[in-house]
Specification:
By secondary structure, the chain is α+β, with helices and mostly antiparallel strands. It contains five helices and four strands, in the order E-E-H-H-E-H-H-H-E. Helix content is 48%, strand content 10%. The protein is globular.
C-alpha cells in the first residue's frame, strides 16, 4: 500500500490516505509491460513483502511512470471515446467501464499520480508498505 509520509514508521491513520497496490494490477503490468521495457521497474518490480521509501527524485519518476502507463493502457485509441473522456474529467477511469481490469488499472494509476503530486507540493515522501 502507498501513502504520503516522512518515514516508513509513520503509517497514515486515515484509510482514505492509503492507496492499496492490488496484486493482480501489479501482475498484469509485470506480465504485459515488463517484457518490452524496463522504464517502469520502479513501480512494476516493487517487492510486495518489503517496505520502500521513495525520495523526491523517485516520486517524480513515479509521476512519469503513471503518465506513461496511462497513455499506453488507458487512453482510448478510438476518436469517439476521446469525446467521452470530456464527460469524466474528474474520474477518467470511468471511460473503461466495459473492461474491469483496465478500469482498475486506470483508477490505481490516476490515484497514485495524484498522491505523488500532492507529496511534491507538501514536500513529503511516498512510502510503500509491503504485506
Amino acid at each position: 500500500m502507498f501513502g504520503i509520509s516522512m518515514s516508513l514508521k509513520e503509517v497514515p491513520e486515515n484509510e482514505k490516505e492509503i492507496l492499496p497496490f492490488p496484486s493482480h494490477v501489479q501482475r498484469f503490468l509485470r506480465e504485459d509491460f515488463a517484457r518490452t521495457s524496463n522504464r517502469c521497474d520502479l513501480l512494476i518490480n516493487l517487492d510486495s513483502y518489503t517496505d520502500k521509501l521513495f525520495g523526491a527524485r523517485e516520486v517524480n519518476e513515479l509521476i512519469g511512470i503513471c503518465e506513461l502507463l496511462i497513455q499506453r493502457y488507458c487512453t482510448p485509441k478510438e476518436a469517439w471515446m476521446m469525446n467521452q473522456a470530456n464527460h469524466y474529467a474528474n474520474e477518467p477511469w470511468m471511460m473503461h467501464q466495459s473492461d474491469n481490469r483496465m478500469m482498475e488499472l486506470h483508477q490505481f494509476l490516476e490515484l497514485l499520480k495524484r498522491m505523488c503530486i500532492a507529496s511534491v507540493y507538501q514536500n513529503t515522501l511516498i512510502c510503500f508498505w509491503g504485506d
